């Protein structure tokens, strides 16, 4: 069996262009939450400025204007929906699939390298046709080699987008691996790279030719596996089981404007508690521990350095938004211990999670609101309508005062929100 | 304040819940004919991963597509002449009927006689984004 790595080209930017014809053929950058810095750029944008990634937006703004670079806020609703569609389409071609990240899947495929390159082209054409997003199909005998093939596509066949390393002879493979620095390999951290270079192992070929046992002794079992996989023996299995429910949930954000008022923070914390409780319900878990925190910015000249934190143990595991909002408010008395604090970021963390397996605690121990279905009702309302000011306590207040996430350049959330559908002129 | 504690391992105090209440009367005559109820989603959507919802704005396709209609658009269908498509012309989306005129020119035809057809001398000036498969509009 061969392993194919199917990854989307400049995924965020490609999603934006798929639903906006004016972006086609243009350089595009996508900003982080809060429009802070560049987190994605397509090839054209990187060609204009190879160092564009992670530059703060205010540094990039003028450049983008002059160079005709399109700038978008990150539209995670759209990217998530497109990602699910792509993963679903890919699953039609293989019974073995590991969804590795938002824009990458590993799949197992059977056939000769020539046949599989044909299949790869077909997958690429289908995903492109159904979603508008271009994907690359990089293949080899192992996951590590599929990753090497992905480097090969970027370097040598960017237009074709499909490559199976099986088309190369052993000598050609050695030459290819010799042209790849070890630190470009999947799973080799830059720290291990330094250690390897001290041992005179600088290229993927030199790593492949190490004794796997020695690699394990000097590093760890992961390095041993990489060595073996580079030789073409699969030993990093496809992880096909969907990841288990997370055992910790965090909702935290930076504010677009610093918070200097207790009531504003009360609203933030209430809302975050409700957001994170919605995630908790969506994965079918209950929590027994909530902590909430707020901190002033590191490099914020205007603020006194400070952070506040509160933890609340819940005697009965719950997913009830009212109970969790109340628990999160334990932070409030700890805020603003002295004047001049300007909070830049806050968050709510749920830990000690367990599956809600239908076992109901005795009524005596259930929080008084639970069982009235408040959480489910909120989830339904939020699914049906966009950004409605419905919530518990201050979390349900209207437009918050400037702290909520800034997404000024947001494209339409056209796959998840009825009121943001794409419009075509008739 | 009362601090609650568990009397026993919660898994041992589960009360039996009956999701399917036992029917005491005559067994349902329908039980030998198990069948899912009709689903409009299934009926309207050929392939979920290829289907998109759009909104039509304008009167050029009336009466076939009333202004404001919700459109079901399928990207997995080959656009052939005669079908209503979402096309990209000059960087803008437009809904029209794809047509090939007698002299072989590609046309994007309006249904509404008061609106002009778009005639495209070159096929390359136009891209089809998707094929409209259903038009949903309120009965008024």
Summarize the structure in words:
Chain A has 426 residues and is α+β, with helices and mostly antiparallel strands. Helices cover 36% and strands 22% of the residues of chain A. Chain A is globular and about 70 Å long. The two termini of chain A are 50 Å apart. The model of chain A has no long low-confidence stretch (mean pLDDT 87). Chain B is mainly beta and 140 residues long. Helices cover 4% and strands 32% of the residues of chain B. Chain B has one helix spanning 40-44; strands spanning 51-57, 70-74, 84-89, 92-100, 106-109, 118-120, 126-136. Chain B starts with 39 loop residues before the first helix and ends with a strand. The relative contact order of chain B is 0.18. The interface between A and B is medium-sized, with 28 and 42 residues.
Quick gist of this model?
The complex is a heterodimer of chains A (426) and B (140). Chain A has 14 helices and 13 strands.
């Amino acid at each position: 069996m061969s392993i194919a790595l199917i990854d989307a080209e400049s995924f965020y930017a490609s999603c934006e262009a798929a639903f906006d014809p004016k972006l086609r053929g243009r350089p595009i950058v996508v900003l982080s939450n809060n429009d802070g810095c560049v987190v994605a750029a397509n090839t054209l944008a990187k060609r204009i400025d190879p160092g564009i990634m992670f530059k703060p937006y205010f540094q990039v703004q003028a450049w983008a204007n002059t160079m005709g670079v399109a700038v978008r806020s990150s539209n995670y609703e759209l990217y998530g929906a497109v990602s699910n569609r792509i993963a679903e389409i890919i699953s039609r071609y293989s019974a073995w699939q590991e969804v590795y990240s938002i824009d990458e899947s590993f799949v197992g495929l059977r056939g000769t390298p020539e046949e599989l390159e044909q299949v790869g082209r077909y997958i690429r054409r289908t995903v492109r046709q159904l979603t508008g997003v271009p994907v690359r199909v990089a293949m080899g005998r192992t996951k590590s080699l599929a990753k090497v093939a992905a480097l090969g596509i970027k370097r040598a066949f960017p237009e074709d987008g499909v490559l199976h390393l099986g088309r190369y002879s052993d000598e050609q493979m050695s030459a290819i691996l010799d042209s790849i620095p070890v630190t470009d390999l999947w799973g080799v951290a830059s720290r291990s790279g330094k250690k390897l270079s001290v041992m005179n192992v600088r290229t993927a070929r030199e790593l492949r030719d190490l004794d796997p046992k020695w690699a394990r002794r000097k590093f760890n079992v992961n390095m041993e596996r990489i060595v073996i996989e580079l030789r073409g023996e699969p030993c990093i299995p496809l992880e096909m089981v969907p990841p288990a429910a997370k055992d910790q949930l965090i909702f935290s954000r930076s504010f677009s404007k610093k918070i200097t008022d207790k009531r504003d923070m009360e609203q933030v914390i209430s809302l975050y508690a409700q957001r994170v409780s919605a995630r908790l319900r969506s994965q079918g878990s209950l929590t027994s521990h909530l902590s909430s925190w707020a901190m002033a910015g590191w490099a914020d000249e205007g603020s006194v350095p400070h952070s506040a934190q509160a933890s609340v143990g819940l005697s009965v595991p719950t997913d009830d938004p009212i109970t969790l909002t109340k628990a999160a408010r334990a932070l409030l008395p700890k805020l603003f211990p002295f004047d001049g604090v300007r909070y830049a970021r806050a968050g709510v963390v749920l830990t000690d999670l367990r599956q809600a397996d239908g076992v109901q605690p005795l009524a005596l121990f259930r929080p008084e609101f639970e069982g009235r279905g408040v959480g489910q009702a909120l989830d339904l309302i939020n699914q049906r309508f966009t950004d409605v000011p419905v919530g518990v306590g201050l979390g349900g207040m209207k437009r918050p005062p400037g702290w909520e996430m800034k997404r000024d350049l947001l494209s339409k959330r056209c796959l998840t929100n009825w009121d943001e559908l794409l419009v075509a002129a008739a | 304040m009362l601090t609650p504690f568990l009397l026993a391992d919660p898994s041992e105090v589960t009360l039996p819940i009956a999701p399917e209440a036992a029917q005491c009367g005559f067994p349902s005559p329908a039980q030998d004919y198990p069948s899912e109820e009709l689903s409009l989603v299934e009926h309207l959507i050929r392939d979920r991963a290829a289907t998109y919802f759009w909104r039509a704005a304008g009167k050029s396709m009336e009466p076939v597509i009333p202004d404001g209609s919700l459109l079901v658009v399928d990207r997995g269908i080959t656009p052939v002449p005669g079908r209503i498509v979402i096309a990209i012309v000059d960087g803008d989306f437009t809904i029209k009927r794809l047509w090939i005129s007698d002299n072989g020119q590609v046309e994007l035809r309006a249904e509404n006689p008061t609106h002009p057809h778009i005639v495209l001398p070159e096929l390359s000036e136009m891209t089809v984004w998707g094929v409209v498969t259903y038009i949903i509009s309120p009965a008024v």
